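ESCALATION

Customer reports they have been waiting on this structure for their group meeting. Please prioritize. Original submission:
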Amino acid sequence: APFYGARSKCFAVTARHGLDVPPAQGGAEYDKAVKQVRGKGIAPELMGTVPTSYSKRTVDETLIGLYWAYDGPRELGTPPRLYNQIVREVAVSKGNSVDDNARLFAFVNAAMGDAGILAWDQKYIHDFWRPVVGIREHDASMGPAAPTPTNNIDNDCDPAWLPLGAPASNSADRNFTPPFPAYPSGHATFGAAAFHIVRLFYGVPAGNRAADTVYSGTFVSDELNGVTRDNAGTVRPRHVRAFPRGLWQMIEENGFSRVFLGVHWSFDAFALDGGGKPDYARNIGGVPLGLKIAENIFSAGGGKAPFKSTVGPRT
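Update from on-call: job pushed to the front of the queue and completed.
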């Protein structure tokens, strides 16, 4: 997919939205992200190797990682299926007419179509490594270049680190890291575009970056439905997840979920402030990209239906 984003025509946006560069390797923000995913995203069998000063993944964070995964396994599919499943629940709760549903799902899927194009374009513009490489080669003595030989590596480097990984559900395959660049997160971009355009459809104003009441019900992910098996053949329990902060909670959980699997850095979804909360004032990560896509498409369509884009391939 290296050329998919750059060479594709868009569906409904009026511009090819982009992102600022991710935090530079060696900077304080990048180093903080290394520590976060090294502790939060590590494979369970390696948890004992995490330095005591690092925060480790909690049970709920493991659930969040699995809940939003949908990394293409049999009987589950990919994230756009999950987001459409949730939007169906929203539509039912709102008592939509057939006309309402035609408009809503056209907006949602046009937004995700452009999210895929623009996120993959940005991925290959920035070409940023995944944690499984970035943590194992964090020290300057590691990797193909190895510019600085040493016998005393940086303590934030772990040459044996492995992630929990994107779950290979309903198969005996290994969990994995997706084989394409990290920045921005596709999950974060798809989810933000889909859920935010639903928020706009039901009256949340553009520019709002806070909890909503569009949907505060529950949802059961097919990753945790009491039927789906992990790659050891064990059936995962059924988990009914609540969303008291509405679709905004879904956007943020979906973004953080990839850190908890160890397949993304936090800034692949969004920049974080000093307290570890998303900083939406910065044009960093898939969530801001998805929000821009949603607001552009909804506005261009006058809130009625997606506008047919005239935006072509990147030149």
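Sent to customer with the following note: The longest helix spans residues 98-126.
Escalation resolved.
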